[in-house]
């Protein structure tokens, strides 16, 4: 993370990365959690072109399981036709996910939009809000007092990550709804959540 020819230390400064070139940065993360990466050059244009994403750090000895660990990155586009919309994982119509009753699911939400400061996310089924348990904000564990079941609705601001765990209790269909802003409920993006027994 940083600016070319500035970030780093002594004679080890991050170089400008030209098209077709690569740069490897090695570092030791301070803790496991959900983080993000993004551009620092021509920010708005490159962010809207998709140069941002999740950086998942796992506890030593664990592996990432996409069957139970779901990452949702909210971004925008530089197309003027789609200026008031959001993408979820690069799509206006992201694929469904499948969960199993009794199996905890981790939802990782990242907001890398350029102007949607209060993107709202909710998990609903049969016109009611389900419940989830907060785990982390910006890669840091929430306090024990905050780790209590709550209605599955959250706001995620620009540059923020929020993690929750959801344990399905009954088979059926639910959906994650992503709203750009509570005052702007058009262009909702949904992710179907199929819960199997």
Short description:
The protein has 197 residues and is mainly beta.
Explain how this protein is built.
By secondary structure, the protein is mainly beta. It has 1 helix and 17 strands.
- What is the count of β-strands? 17
Proportion of residues in extended strands: 35-45%
Largest sheet: 7 strands, mixed
Overall structural class, as computed from helix and strand content, comes to: mainly beta
Tally of alpha and pi helices: 1
Helix percentage: under 10%
Order of helices and strands: EEEHEEEEEEEEEEEEEE
Radius of gyration: 18 Å
Global morphology: globular
Which key phrases capture this entry?
single chain, 197 residues, mainly beta, seven-stranded mixed β-sheet, six-stranded mixed β-sheet, 1 helix, 17 strands, 3% helix, globular
Topology (elements, then pairings):
Layout: E1 8-9, E2 12-13, E3 33-38, H1 43-48, E4 52-57, E5 69-75, E6 87-88, E7 97-100, E8 105-111, E9 119-125, E10 128-129, E11 131-137, E12 140-141, E13 150-151, E14 153-156, E15 161-166, E16 172-179, E17 189-196
């Amino acid at each position: 993370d940083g600016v070319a020819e500035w970030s780093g230390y002594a004679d080890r400064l991050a170089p400008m990365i030209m098209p077709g070139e690569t740069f490897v940065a090695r570092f030791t993360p301070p803790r496991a959690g959900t983080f993000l990466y993004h551009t620092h050059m021509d920010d708005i244009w490159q962010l809207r072109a998709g140069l941002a994403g999740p950086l998942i750090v796992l506890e030593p000895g664990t592996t990432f399981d996409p069957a139970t660990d779901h990452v949702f990155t909210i971004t925008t586009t530089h197309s003027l036709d789609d200026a008031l919309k959001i993408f979820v994982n690069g799509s206006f119509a992201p694929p469904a996910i499948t969960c199993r009753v009794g199996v905890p699911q981790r939802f990782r939400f990242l907001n890398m939009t350029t102007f949607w400061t209060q993107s709202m996310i909710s998990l609903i089924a049969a016109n009611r809000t389900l419940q989830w348990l907060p785990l982390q904000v910006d890669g840091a564990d929430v306090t024990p007092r905050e780790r209590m079941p709550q209605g599955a609705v959250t706001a995620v601001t620009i540059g923020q990550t929020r993690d929750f765990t959801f344990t399905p209790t009954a088979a059926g269909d639910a959906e994650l709804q992503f709203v750009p802003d509570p005052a702007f409920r058009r262009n909702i993006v949904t992710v179907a959540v199929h819960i199997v027994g």
